[in-house]
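User: Some background: our group keeps a shared notebook of sequences we're curious about, and every so often someone picks one and asks for a predicted structure to add to the entry. Today it's my turn. The entry only has the sequence so far, pasted here. Could you supply the structure so I can complete it?
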Amino acid sequence: MLESLQRRIESDGETERRLDSNRGPDAERRSVVATPLFRLGRAIFGGILALLAIDNLRNLDERIEYARAKGAPAPDLSVPGISITLLLGSVGVTLWRLPSASAAAVATFFAAVTPQMHDFWTIEDDAERQQEFFQFLKNGALFGAALALARLARRHR
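Assistant: Of course. Here's the predicted structure to add to the notebook entry:
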C-alpha cells in the first residue's frame, strides 16, 4: 500500500515540476514552503505529534498493555517501533528535513494505529463508541495532513 502511495506521489511530482518550469525563475521564491505561515503550521503539527510520541515512549508499559488489550500484533515491539516512527517523522516535518520521508513516517503511524486502536465499529457502549469514533476521525484528519505534506515535500525538493 505504501509503495503504491509513494509511486503516486512521485508521479504527481513529475507533473508539478513540469508546471513549475512554466512559471519562471520566481516560482521557487514564492513557494508556499518558504512562507512563515507554513513554517508555523509545520511547527505546530510536528511539535504536537512529537510530544505525543514522547508521551508514548515515557509511558511505554501502559501503551503496550493498551495495545495488547486492543489485539495489536506484537505490542512489545510494535508500540515502541511505531512511536519512534512518529517521533522521527514529526521532528523531520517540524525541521523540514527529509520532508517527504518524514511526512510518510507520520502517515504510516496513523495508517497503522488508527483502525487498530480506534475500532469504534466493534464497541457496544454508546459513549465509548462515540469517543473512539471521534478519535478515529481526528486521526484520519492528521493522516490526510501528513499525506498533503508528503506531496508538498515531493513538489518542492
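Suggested note for the entry: The chain has six helices and no strands. Residues 110 and 140 are 7 Å apart (CA to CA).
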